[in-house]
């Protein structure tokens, strides 16, 4: 069995953790309007909108135009969202890949953050870790954070 690897980065938020998680929980459909050069479109394949268990077909730009289907997993108790890739162009390089965001509400210091991580299994040893997918998630998160600070 292939080994699951993980890369991650913690991002400090200017908005509250609750605001940030609620955006991804309830307003993820706005991402294509906010990032039209990165997220070119989506279609709900299974499920009712951007809800737990839904399957979404994305068209996105990561150097070149790519497509993928993702299954959405939401954990409200832990303020975590996982986008599990189930089909798409990236399976040429990875046997398995999932992007996860875990939001913390700041605790004693009052500073909220989100930890984005990418779990993956390489199709072969010559494949680089998917730093581009982690960077993509971080860029979207920074944009969402700025949007929430300016619109609340």
Name a few traits of the molecule.
alpha+beta, 43% strand, Alpha-D-Glucose-1,6-Bisphosphate, Chain A, domain 4, 152 residues, 7-stranded antiparallel β-sheet, single chain
Helix content: 10-25%
The beta-strand count equals 7
How much of the polypeptide forms β-strand, as a percent range? 35-45%
- Fourth-tier CATH superfamily name: START domain
CATH architecture heading: 2-Layer Sandwich
Instruction: Summarize the helix and strand pattern as letters.
Output: EHHEEEEEEH
Q: How many H/I helical runs?
A: 3
Q: For the residues shown, what is the average pLDDT? A: 94
Head-to-tail CA distance between termini:
47 Å
Round the Cα radius of gyration to an integer and report it.
15 Å
Structural class: alpha+beta
The overall number of domains is 1
What are the segments in which pLDDT stays under 50 over at least 5 consecutive residues?
none
- The geometry reads as globular
Topology-level CATH name: Alpha-D-Glucose-1,6-Bisphosphate, Chain A, domain 4
| Largest beta-sheet characterization | 7 strands, antiparallel
How do the strands of the widest beta sheet line up side by side? Answer: 1-7-6-5-4-3-2
The CATH class name reads Alpha Beta
Gist of the model:
InterPro entries: Bet_v_I/MLP (IPR000916), MLP-like (IPR052006), START-like_dom_sf (IPR023393). The chain has three helices and seven strands.
Description:
By secondary structure, the protein is α+β, with helices and mostly antiparallel strands. Helices cover 22% and strands 43% of the residues. The chain has 3 helices and 7 strands. It has a 7-stranded antiparallel beta sheet with strand order 1-7-6-5-4-3-2. The longest helix has 20 residues, at 131-150.
């Amino acid at each position: 069995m292939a080994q699951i690897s993980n890369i991650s980065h913690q991002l400090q938020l200017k908005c509250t953790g609750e605001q940030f998680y609620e955006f991804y929980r309830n307003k993820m459909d706005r991402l294509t309007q906010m990032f039209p050069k990165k997220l070119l479109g989506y279609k709900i394949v299974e499920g009712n909108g951007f809800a737990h268990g839904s399957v979404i077909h994305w068209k996105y730009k990561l150097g070149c135009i790519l497509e993928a289907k993702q299954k959405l997993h939401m954990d409200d108790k832990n303020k975590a969202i996982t986008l599990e890739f189930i089909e798409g162009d990236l399976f040429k390089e990875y046997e398995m890949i999932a992007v996860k965001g875990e939001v913390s509400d700041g605790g004693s210091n009052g500073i909220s953050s989100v930890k984005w991580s990418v779990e993956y299994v390489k199709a072969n040893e010559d494949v680089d870790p998917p730093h581009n997918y982690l960077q993509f998630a971080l860029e979207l998160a920074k944009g969402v954070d700025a949007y929430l600070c300016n619109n609340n």
